[in-house]
């Protein structure tokens, strides 16, 4: 829900489904994007990273934690609304900011 609020449906679907594809498809899809690499674990890692950042931010927002830092991979600062790029799958910063603000 929160990921979909910050990224195009096609983008979310790509990340959600790419790990279940064969190596040929993953490699062919990799060639379409700048500095991105797909493998059998990237879907799970991308969604876990986004979920973890939301969980940590929620604990700070509800005063369960006084502060926190999330060290997650893959990184998040290069991704675009409609496509992954720059070794990034989702923009966790934008996702968590939208979550907290809403």
Automatic annotation (TrEMBL):
Signal peptide: none annotated. InterPro entries: His_deacetylse_dom, His_deacetylse_dom_sf, Ureohydrolase_dom_sf. Residues 3-101 form the Histone deacetylase domain. It comes from the Eukaryota. Pfam families: Hist_deacetyl. PANTHER family: HISTONE DEACETYLASE 18-RELATED (PTHR10625:SF25), HISTONE DEACETYLASE HDAC1-RELATED (PTHR10625). This is Histone deacetylase domain-containing protein. It comes from Triticum aestivum. The lineage of its organism: Eukaryota, Viridiplantae, Streptophyta, Embryophyta, Tracheophyta.
């Amino acid at each position: 829900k929160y990921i979909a609020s910050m990224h195009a449906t096609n983008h979310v679907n790509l990340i959600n489904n790419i790990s279940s594809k064969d190596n040929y498809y993953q490699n062919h899809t990799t060639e379409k994007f700048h500095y991105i690499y797909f493998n059998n674990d990237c879907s799970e890692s991308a969604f876990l990273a986004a979920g973890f950042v939301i969980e940590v931010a929620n604990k700070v927002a509800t005063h369960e934690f006084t502060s926190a830092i999330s060290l997650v991979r893959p990184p998040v600062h290069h991704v675009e609304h409609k496509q992954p790029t720059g070794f990034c799958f989702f923009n966790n910063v934008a996702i968590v900011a939208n979550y907290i603000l809403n």
